[in-house]
Design brief:
homodimer; 245 residues; alpha+beta; Glutaredoxin; Glutathione S-transferase Yfyf (Class Pi), Chain A, domain 2; 2 domains; 4-stranded mixed beta sheet; 6% strand; globular; Glutathione_S-Trfase_N (chains A, B)
């Protein structure tokens, strides 16, 4: 039975980390909110799960994944669950917790990226918190982005199996997520990320290797890969960018 | 062999969610950063792991747990790993992913609590972002805290096994974390949380049940339970509180 992925239509967002894994593995999945109401899909089908006043263990927010009777929320949790089934997790069980720890650190970075344009309230418009967004973005680009990327570069360099992968010696969903992080940061902050390869050569090499994988390349060229836009996590507001590193 | 928990000394912080599980289970553990340098413990021992330029898979930030050769970072990941070993996870494997999803939603709430006092830059003093902190706190208390607590209350009410536990019919680490969330929010925002029991009766009942457990009560009365203070996640700045709900 096909996996059912529930995430907002119209943006990549956090759902994209799950899509990349499903696409790389060529797994059968339905992107529920992007479907048609006549097929019992669409945004209404997603909201029914979110707003249910009777279901056991309703999700707090998208993305969530339905696999048979099981409803699994939270991006990193979905990937932890799917990883072994899609052959995108380390074989070693201990390393699976290492991979999950790395994915959760990626999730922390994603949250901080979101807060660069929404530092005060996720329910308010960007325009209503632009001044604060400039201050938070300046700090993000000066301190936080280098801290996260420097860390991921170090994980690659110190990987006992070599710098081709984040965890172990095979491709995992963490590698796919690193690709997405680089794509997103380059979209949101083209000036600040202009010289990324000089500072983080192994991260950029991993990004390039993922982009060249046939299933990922086919996905990126498909209409299923929505372009980045200013409703997602990674948004390009030129006034928040700076010519940094 | 005793577990080694690595977390900053002097505050509860994110490490406290792990401590509560270890204490409830009466597991043997060493709180490394609180130990003595002469025992090869202390903050230096923790920084050596964080700053290592040779270890495989160094952690990004505390807390992290060492179990033999395995170093596990990220609070929810540590609890996912420890849960079954401490008999604090659901027996059903599917429910373990449900529990992890709930714990990750608690982690999201914790991050938002942190950002009430540090909305612009975690590296700057609170005093340097007090105006923005007031705006973010107002939004947190008006919108985000009710959204999270309303959700957790709903999970309890809709639990097919009854509202005594967050996942399944036995105590899990998620229940312990709900206790900590209530304690922290009450410390940080005593006015805004004054009538918590009226709005979220099952959450408060769960908090009370956890507090009454013998191992937890003994821990709370021990010197190992540090008081909340203004270096932790939950900080009491009266100007950020309001008489809400």
């Amino acid at each position: 039975m096909a996996y059912e992925l529930y995430y907002w239509d119209g943006l990549q967002g956090r759902g994209e980390f799950v899509r990349l894994a499903l696409e790389e593995a060529q797994a059968a999945y339905v992107d529920v909110a992007r479907g048609e109401k006549t097929d019992s899909l669409g945004i209404g089908a997603m909201m029914a799960k979110l707003d249910s006043r009777s279901d056991a263990y309703p999700p707090f927010a998208p993305p969530f994944l339905k696999d048979g009777d099981l409803l699994i929320p939270q991006t990193a949790n979905i990937l932890f669950y799917l990883g072994p089934k899609l052959s995108l997790a380390p074989r070693d069980e201990g390393l699976r917790y290492v991979a999950n720890g790395l994915q959760l650190t990626i999730a922390d970075l994603v949250t901080e990226v979101h807060d660069t344009h929404h530092p005060i309230a996720s329910g308010l418009y960007y325009e209503d918190q632009k001044g604060e967004a400039k201050a938070r973005s300046a700090d993000f680009l000066a301190h936080r982005m280098p801290k996260f990327l420097g860390y991921f570069e170090r994980v690659l360099v110190q990987n006992p199996s070599g710098p081709q992968h984040m965890a172990g010696d095979t491709l995992t969903y963490v590698d796919l997520s690193i690709f997405q992080i680089v794509e997103g940061l380059r979209y949101a902050f083209p000036k600040a990320t202009k010289h990324l390869a000089d500072h983080y050569p192994h991260i950029v090499a991993l990004r390039d290797a993922v982009a060249a994988r046939p299933n990922i390349a086919a996905y990126l060229a498909s209409p299923r890969r929505l372009p980045f836009n200013e409703t997602g996590i990674f948004r390009h507001y030129p006034e928040l960018d700076r010519s940094a590193r």
